[in-house]
């Protein structure tokens, strides 16, 4: 789990130049719960069937979520039925509300099949946040809209039905830690985004394109701030970006998010040129580069967290929490599972009867 420590926001500093700095503190979790249809003995032969069963796993997953009690919870691979019949009613008992969307293919399915499609969910603690607006990005729809007949955009990117989901939240009074009683109350907007990027390593170009397209979720959601009479400059938004990006730290995906740019000839594009399509969606204010304006930093690197995915044949960092580094400061991180504990309990991979899918969490 990732707990994110609250950032001192610029608006608070402006309003309190001669007085105390107001600090909003919250924690955030990012968690791929591994949906039921993917938890098979074929995929995880080292795990007994009873431990892969959803009725067993869901109790442990919910117990872990409740144990950490994050203020913002980002989940991936949540089936529609699991969200509406299990996670939402259970977490409402703990003071949360949430939003959800299944992957794009769900809209073309019968109701009996749609409920088993997995997607992304964002939960937020209602005592600290109110929901202003939610926004869904369907990568395949944007790929089709901007393809201009480009064959590999249509044949490689468009068929993948991954999604991005965003919640534009506003803080309530209880989100502020040291606000004087007579001080003006700040309704700070926070944009929380989550996504589950395509999994196949052979489609590293698709992963990068999806991530670049995802930038549009931030731009469109940022426009909502105009209705709040708040500074709409995207670089000033309090931003938390979470997800299962299925990408290692040296990938184009993480380079683009972390540095704000990626070369147009990056190796992850392979031999395909997406330039004409991407120029319609992205900034190209520097020669031979695609850029974005958000100043982001990753909560984790391999010095802190050697893996977020721990299976028999793969161990590495593919899940991330990014944050607006100019206006937010991490106060704490949830570290990895103890390697000694894994060895003592002979855990060769997750899922495991004594563990669940790894969580990434952070405190701000």
UniProtKB/TrEMBL annotation:
Record domain Endonuclease/exonuclease/phosphatase: where: 30-329
A Pfam short name: Exo_endo_phos
Residue runs in coiled coils: none
Transmembrane segments: none
CDD domains reported for this sequence: Deadenylase_CCR4
Superkingdom classification of source: Eukaryota
SUPFAM superfamilies named among the record's database cross-references: DNase I-like (SSF56219)
Name of the protein: Endonuclease/exonuclease/phosphatase domain-containing protein
Organism: Molorchus minor
């Amino acid at each position: 789990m990732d707990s994110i420590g609250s950032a001192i926001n610029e608006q608070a500093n402006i309003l309190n130049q001669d007085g105390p700095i107001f600090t909003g503190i919250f924690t955030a979790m990012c968690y791929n719960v591994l949906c039921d249809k993917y938890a098979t003995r074929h995929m995880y032969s080292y795990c007994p069937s009873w431990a892969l069963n959803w009725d067993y796993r869901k109790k442990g997953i919910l117990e872990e979520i409740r144990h950490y009690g994050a203020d913002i919870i980002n989940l991936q691979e949540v089936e529609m039925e699991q969200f509406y019949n299990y996670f939402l009613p259970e977490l409402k008992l703990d003071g949360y509300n949430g939003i959800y969307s299944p992957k794009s293919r769900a809209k073309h399915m019968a109701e009996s099949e749609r409920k088993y499609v997995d997607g992304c969910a964002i939960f937020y603690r209602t005592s600290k946040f109110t929901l202003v607006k939610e926004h869904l990005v369907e990568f395949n729809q944007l790929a089709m809209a901007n393809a201009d007949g480009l064959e590999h955009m249509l044949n490689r990117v468009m068929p993948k039905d991954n999604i991005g989901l965003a919640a534009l939240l506003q803080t309530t009074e209880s989100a502020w830690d040291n606000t004087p009683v007579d001080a003006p109350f700040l309704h700070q907007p926070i944009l929380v985004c989550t996504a589950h990027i395509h999994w196949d390593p052979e489609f590293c170009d698709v992963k990068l394109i999806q991530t670049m397209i995802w930038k549009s979720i931030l731009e469109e959601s940022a426009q909502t701030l105009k209705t709040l009479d708040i500074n709409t400059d995207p670089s000033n938004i309090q931003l938390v970006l979470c997800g299962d990006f299925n990408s290692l730290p040296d990938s184009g995906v993480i380079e683009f998010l972390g540095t704000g740019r990626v070369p147009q000839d990056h190796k992850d594009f392979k031999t395909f040129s997406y330039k004409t399509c991407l120029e319609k969606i992205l900034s190209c204010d520097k020669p031979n580069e695609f850029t974005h304006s958000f100043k982001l930093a990753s909560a984790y690197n391999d010095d802190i967290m050697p893996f977020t995915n721990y299976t028999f044949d793969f161990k590495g960092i593919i899940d991330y929490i990014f944050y607006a580094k100019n206006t937010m400061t991490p106060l704490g991180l949830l570290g990895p599972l103890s390697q000694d504990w894994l060895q003592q309990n002979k855990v060769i991979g997750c899922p495991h009867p004594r563990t669940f899918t790894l969580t990434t969490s952070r405190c701000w």
